[in-house]
Design a protein that fits this description.
alpha+beta; Multidrug efflux transporter AcrB transmembrane fold; Alpha-Beta Plaits; 4 domains; 13 helices; about 20% strand; elongated
Length: about 425
């Protein structure tokens, strides 16, 4: 079989050159379009369902949230396994699909079941899908730094400006904020005053909900003109909260400030984030979408950061804490270095021992062509270019070198014997 291929190639050089040209074009196209990353993605093809019901213990979460959801998620096509975990105030369900299932098709099927399962959950509890990323999707970290700004102000800049701008970058699944203080209005109710005014805690909660909204009215006509009437009720500062009426005593309205203290404070923190042991920081984690080219996503994120910095408050700057593109570029540079080193070694070995330029060219040309064929198969099977795949190609170059030298030497010996027989 091999002899027939060699014979056909010898007599059809034009088609051989066409094949080489196609290999070069296909290999270069595969290199340009294959997703590039530093770490191989070994995570399962899964969809995460997250449900929050704060203040409930794990047993209640298991009985009223996790079990009903898992029961309704049974029977989805191409599902390999369903795993669940219940903890204080939170429920996580991992729906693992077969490897050949398309991820966004899987998310759609899970979302369809969640719409039906909503009826079995307590009122006000809404399950949500996790981001369409993987465990190795954290490709870029950044922090906010600014002299004269506290952690609460920096966190507000991150949550209400930087985060929204970064989420619009193509290929970004989510931007997760970390560190700092999340500002909130806190109402500290005095139970003794509630008893004195005969007001329940539920009355206070309902009053807060009812007074933090705008309401629409009808149309008032005057001089053949129609005027829209609406009531403005959104809370803007602490004074608006303090003036909310929670009841009445002898026709005198009782305001919230009469039974509670209102202040601006931070949410409860369960941990802190430090950078290099130099103190707390505020920042965000950019999560790339499933199957995206990590290198291109990082480049687009860096480009957007330049535009975002123009709108930051005076003195606030964005600092890059982790950038995976450095590792990606190092892995690609290692492959290039190994490729050139192998080509030089092969050239020297063939030229020194055979002292034949055309034989050296044959061995040298097979190396890049074989590497390009390998990239074509990487693209065909949906594998990303990472440390493992690039390292495998670099190691395979050594086998190509041995085979090229041995086959060239055998061919050279065969030609010498043929020439000697002809002379005899």
């Amino acid at each position: 079989m091999i002899e027939k291929i060699i014979s056909w190639s010898t007599h059809n050089r034009f088609f051989v050159w066409i094949g080489i040209l196609l290999i070069v074009v296909g290999g270069v196209w595969s290199v340009m379009t294959t997703p590039v990353d530093a770490i191989p993605d070994l995570s399962e093809n899964q969809v995460i369902v997250y449900t929050e019901w704060m203040g409930r213990n794990p047993q209640i979460m298991e009985d009223q949230i996790t079990y009903p959801l898992v029961s309704n998620l049974q029977g989805i096509p191409n599902v390999k396994a369903i795993r669940a975990a219940s903890m204080f105030g939170m429920s996580f369900i991992f729906v693992v699909f077969n490897d050949d299932a398309e991820i966004y098709w899987a998310r759609t099927r899970v979302l369809e079941r969640l719409n039906f399962a909503q009826k079995a959950l307590p009122q006000g509890v809404t399950p949500t899908l996790g981001p369409d990323g993987t465990g190795v999707g954290h490709v870029f970290w950044y922090t906010l730094q600014g002299d004269g700004y506290d952690l609460g102000e920096l966190r507000a800049v991150q949550d209400w400006y930087v985060k929204f701008a970064m989420q619009n970058v193509e290929g970004v699944s989510e931007v997760a904020s970390f560190g700092g203080f999340q500002k909130q209005y806190q109402v500290s109710v005095n139970p003794n005053k509630l008893i004195y005014y005969n007001i329940s805690a539920m009355d206070v909660a309902n009053a807060l909900k009812a007074n933090n909204r705008d309401v629409g009215g009808s149309i008032y006509e005057m001089n053949r003109m129609g005027y829209m009437i609406r009531g403005l009720g959104y809370i803007k500062d602490i004074r608006d909260i303090e003036e909310i009426s929670v009841g009445s005593n002898k026709s005198i309205p009782i305001k919230l400030k009469d039974v509670a203290d209102v202040q601006m404070s931070s949410d409860i923190r369960l941990g802190i984030v430090e950078e290099n042991g130099e103190g707390e920081v505020v920042g965000g984690v950019v999560v790339a979408r499933y199957g995206e080219n990590a290198k291109e996503v990082i480049d687009r994120v860096k480009e957007r950061l330049g535009d975002v910095e123009k709108g930051l408050p005076p003195g606030v700057k964005i600092k890059i804490a982790y950038d995976r593109s450095n590792l990606i570029e190092a892995a690609i540079a290692t492959l290039k270095e190994a490729l050139w080193e192998e080509i030089i070694v092969v050239s020297l070995v063939v030229l020194i021992f055979l002292f034949h330029v055309r034989s050296a060219v044959v061995a040298i040309v097979t190396i890049p062509l074989s590497v390009l064929i390998g990239f074509m198969f990487v693209k065909m099977f949906g594998i990303s270019l990472n440390i493992m795949s690039l390292g495998g190609i670099a190691l395979a170059i050594g086998d190509l070198v041995d085979a090229g030298i041995v086959m060239t030497e055998n061919a050279y010996k065969g030609l010498v014997k043929a020439v000697l027989k002809t002379e005899e």
